[in-house]
Amino acid sequence: MTDFKDSWKAQTALVHGGTQRSQFGETSEALFLTQGFIYDSAEAAEARFKGEDPGFIYSRYANPTVDMFEKRMCALEGAEDARATASGMAAVSAALLCSLRAGDHVVAARALFGSCRWIVETLMPRYGVETTLVDGASLQAWEEAIRPNTKLFFLESPTNPTLEVCDIAGIAKLANTIGARLVVDNVFATPLLQRPLELGAHVVVYSATKHIDGQGRCLGGIVLSDRDWIDEHLHDYFRHTGPSLSPFNAWTLLKGLETLSVRVRQQMESAGRVADYLAEHPKISRVVYPGRPDHPQAELIARQMKGGSTLVCLDVGGGKNDAFAFSNALKIIGISNNLGDAKSLITHPGTTTHKNLSEEARTEAGINPGTLRLSLGLEDCDDLIADIEQALAKVG
User: Fold this and answer.
1) Domain contains 22
2) Distance in angstroms (rounded) separating the CA atoms of residues 121 and 149
3) Are residues 162 and 232 in the same domain?
């Protein structure tokens, strides 16, 4: 029989999903700041450790507040199970490494966040895992990279920072033909604008630090998948390596989820307006926004996403010096490497988030000297456009 909760829309799940109340019947989720738990008897402790009693053992493994966050994310994402982590990168590294061993092969999209690419390109080969980077937008490139020992595909879509989109359904189908798993970093789209599991992906990861918190308060991450994969691969890795999320951060993220839909809706509306403004400005040489019809993959985006994201990629025509001058002249929009925040933020990827890539690698990823990543916040959009206009007037 279908549970009534299974029919909840996203906005309802964001407020109520996974809620567990203590004997006090609190309105807000309870914050359990505890390392461990007391058992009624030695026999009860034995049963708990044997898995015969489903209660909590130790907050490194599971915690009531963290459990609520995991269950709420499962309800939102349509996943069977999840493990929350201390940061987005903890989620990425756990999702990638927990099922791999020396001799396996990983295929990943070339356009990745700098730390994600370091794991694929630098860390994995140290432990005997072979890796291949491909043009993520080309299904043919994914297919041609497959080897007999290929076990895992990894991508982010839209990509950081150039907002390129990968065909998740097509890549998942390729993975299925060889028995591999597709891991998707869905942080830019949020679970409201894209549902990778529904498109065929096997594992989804988020940096909850971004839109899920959305107010610059704490770090967090999460890995979501089917229960069998988590039990077989992730659970023991997670339990013994300890990338667990703190209960306080889990509680903060639960509060962030309550307002996620209203924040993303306004941020996306502002992003679309700002992208249209920038596209007409003579000092801007490139604008990439998944919600515009001139996006190179507009047809795929229409099939795969429910909206255009809260971010805009732009190139200031004069290169790095003009990009810096523009950023420094902004009065409302802050310079930061974070995104998805209530405050609008701008980043120069070439000197921050992707600075460790070679110049050739940055060029391959579409990151030019004048490239900027703009994350739209909750300010009035007219004020944001006025801020951008006065800053551009000081360029060149």
Assistant:
1) yes
2) 17
3) yes
